[in-house]
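Lab meeting, action items carried over

1. Structure of the two-component assembly. Owner: GW. Status: complete.
Input record:
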Amino acid sequence: MKPNERAKYLEDYAESKKKGIPFFPDAIFKDAIAALIVFLVIVSLATFVGASLEAVADPSDAGFTPRPEWYFLFLFQLLKFFPGSLEVVGVFIIPMVALGFLVALPWTDRSARRHWTGRPVVTSITVFLFAGAIFLTVQAITAEPPPTADVASGDQIALLYSANCAGCHGTTISASSGTDLYKVIEGGTHDGMPAWNSDLTSIEIDALVGFILSPSGYTLFVDNCSECHDMQSLAESDSTELRRALDEGPDYAPHATLGLPVWREALTKADQAKLLNFLTAPDGQRLWFQECSACHGQSVAYSGDRKDLEELIRRGGGHLQMPSFGSALSPEEIETLALYVTVPSAAPEGAEMFGRLCTSCHATRVPTAPDLETARQLISLGGSHEDMPVWGDILTDQQIDALVDYVLAAAKLPNLDEAEQLFLQNCAACHGNLGEGGTNPTRAGDIIAPISTAEYLATRDDATLRSIISQGQPNFGMSPFADTFGGPLNSDQVDLLVAYIRSWAEDPPVDLPPDIPIVPQGARTAPALYEALCAQCHGASGEGGIGPAYDAAWQASKTDQQIFDDINLGHAATAMIAWGDLLSSQEIEDMVTYIRTLTGEAGQSAPLTYVSSILPIFDTYCAACHGVLGGWTATSYEDAMTSGDNGPVIIPGDPDSSSLVQSLIGTHPDGLVMPPAVTMSQSDIQKIIDWVAAGAPEG
Amino acid sequence: MQPAANDDRLKQTGDWLDERTGWRGNWTAVFLRKIPKVSWAYTLGSATLFTLVLQFVTGILLTLYYVPEPQQAYASVTYITNELSFGWLIRGIHHWGASAMVLLAILHMVRVIIYGAYKYPREVTWLTGVGLLLLTFAFGFTGYLLPWDQRAYWATVVGTQIGSVPPVVGGFTKDLMLGGPEISGLTLSRFFGAHVWVLPSLLVALVAIHLFLVVRNGITSPPKRDE
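Predicted assembly:
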């Protein structure tokens, strides 16, 4: 504005004031009316709508979809347009530009024009800014909850996605490559996103990762697979088979008659990867247990660098020798087994043989031979045939990355003795010595469920366990244990506890419901039932274990009726189920009488000897290979004590130095882990250790 | 007593006061001044001021019962809502008054832009107005956490995370707001302190300047098409 324009304005203004009205009472009257209307509106809203109050803040419930107050919604909505590293644009740059426009307005618009038609630039910017803010606000309000297209089709994962993610992320998330989505979801590491691990199981998180990585994966699945397969069963199937089905197309045996397209040509490489990532999410821990643990057990010792390991996995290769069964089996037996591995349904009796002879290396996966003749030869001659698959051809890059990460993390063998001490000091008071749970000392009337069941361990991965231990579960009365959250443990100790809890997975001390062996009708006497059902927790002579011991103090504290009720009704959420469903009341009464005869003192256990205790273990786990392949021979005491490639593997009295024990517990310097496929139970390993410590007596 | 005598007494008291305070001059300058003929759109500013007063009154009443401490914040809000006489009304007015204030402030600003009222000689008035708008948003943000319910908590989780995004100052801003790595009792104390002490002080100061300038420069007359 020029000086003369300014003077002109002041003159005009003085003129209009002269023609104007007095502030009091005229303008004040109008203001009072406006204020009254505003007041009435506010009071009516307060009265008829009120100020809502949600449930009390619960930091552990990340399932709550956060919504800001309406006047921040436009900002909230703006964020969704700028994912990942761009978020600074939506959060900071755009709002700052808008604010800068407002602040600088009197100095950028310096013309003397005042009517809005005379200032087209300012007017249009203003309209743009406000229309934008209103548009975003309306979009945020109406987009809640944003349904994904797939929800209607009943896709469970799309439902999961729309329930948990879509509230903030809209219908799709574009993640930059190399993002560890699992970690992001599980730990909630980026802007405003909470950790989901307490709300979602690791399987659900996997599914979400697959869904996010391959939003089109679902479409691909529907278009190409869903006519014959349901998603769950495909997701649980073996990656090798999935890849073969894709690679071989119509030549893949189970697909042979279906007239399917050649997938290699029908789907681009990228689409194939998307489909595989969708079906088998890149989650190292899950891939390991699905693909590797059958041969490698819980973990492998590996201390080299990441690149070599990745190369090793990608390349695969043969490294296990199969013994020759030609001399050990009759031709008929070989025929049965050969038939079984060629066409399993043609030789059901082969299942028993396979279980007896082959599972110690092949675990539960039955290898399939292309034809009878090949099968016959393989079985009779043995040799190098079970190669490690060329994973580079089977898994997608994302899956291999995840697997390598997991193997490296799992290879750091923890000191389980120290871990057990930590568990006993910090956890056992509430969770019991074996994670069996019990009454909650911090909340009357509450029962802590077991944390050592196969089901519990399978549905929570290490990351989840780690964060539960670190942050506690305040809503269940568990305080945080990591020092970063004010607890007593440093992060190494938390890792140790996770490893300790994970070590139960081999042989869960509590299973819910317990494995109930079939009791033959004729033998339903109290002692037989006790041995089959009760002894696994209460000990063969009532000496206790996971459940209480039936010692004198216990016997004195219970009436017969109480024992009857405990058996009949069980204890909620513990391994003590309500046996009334399985036993008749007469049987329970007999059981009470039988339990009364128990003293809770275990019979003197027989000393461990090779013949009585160790040979059966060797026969089950070791003899298939270590009897015919050379190296160490496990089949007789003489051989067991003296054979071995580098001297005896058993040093009587010194289990720590015996390479047998080292390879069983995973401390062998060469990284040997035995047995290669199945995992030996802790009690069997303990027996061997005790036996070696006792001087390895023969009998 | 005669009415005339009554008027006399009032005038005497007025004179006595005027001699000691000079109120008549101020009264004339503020209330009896002439202003241009204006439309109803000009009541938006005063309506915003009215909601501000309403927020002060209801806010003060709420602090009498509210406890800014994580264990008890929610319980005290529940108490105010469900048990305290007219507590629900006070809280309801404070809740809706906040929205009304934001809405009216924005409309007021739109009116100012449309009428070109930020121009000479009212540039400083405009600046204080922008400052007041930001303060109003800050009130809304800090007040949102205080009920300590799920919505409050998670919206603040998101809000404070957003605060950490700007480069350089982001980390500091977040620490300043949270008082630690995550939302805790400290965060609640800080939000309460800001909402009840810091922001009101700034707001009162800025409103005083804003009003002084409005009175001094007068309000704009609605511009004509050729202006």
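2. GW to write a short summary for the group page. Key points so far: Residues 185-217 of chain B form the longest helix (33 residues). The first strand of chain B starts at residue 34 and ends at 35.
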